[in-house]
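Lab notebook: predicted structure, single chain.

Context: the supervisor wants predicted structures on file for every construct in the current expression panel, including those that have not yet been purified. This is the next one on the list. No modifications to the sequence; it matches the entry in the shared construct table.
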Amino acid sequence: WLKHNVDDSLLTTVSSLVEDETYTVRVLAFTSVGDGPLSDPIQVKTQQGVPGQPMNFRAEAKTETSIGLTWSPSRQESIVKYELYYKEGDLGKEVLKSFE
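Prediction complete. Output recorded below exactly as produced.
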C-alpha cells in the first residue's frame, strides 16, 4: 500500500499511475489523537491511453506494382485496427487504407 496525504480536503487526485491498470483504494481520517479506521476498499481502473507509433516500420519493393510493409505494434497491446496512408509521388492524392 502506498500513502497519499491530503490535508483536510475531501477531494484529491493521485497521479503518475499506469494506464489501463486496476487500483484498489482505501481512505482514512486522522486527528492529533491518531488514525481512524480504513474505509472499505474500492477498485478503479485507469483509462486506456492512445497507442504510440508503430515500431520498426519497414518497406520493401515486392514487384513492379507492389510493396511489402512490416511493423511491430507499439507497447499498447489493445490495438483494434491500423490505418495506412500513402500517396504516389510528391503531388499524388493521399489514400487511406484501414484494416484490423
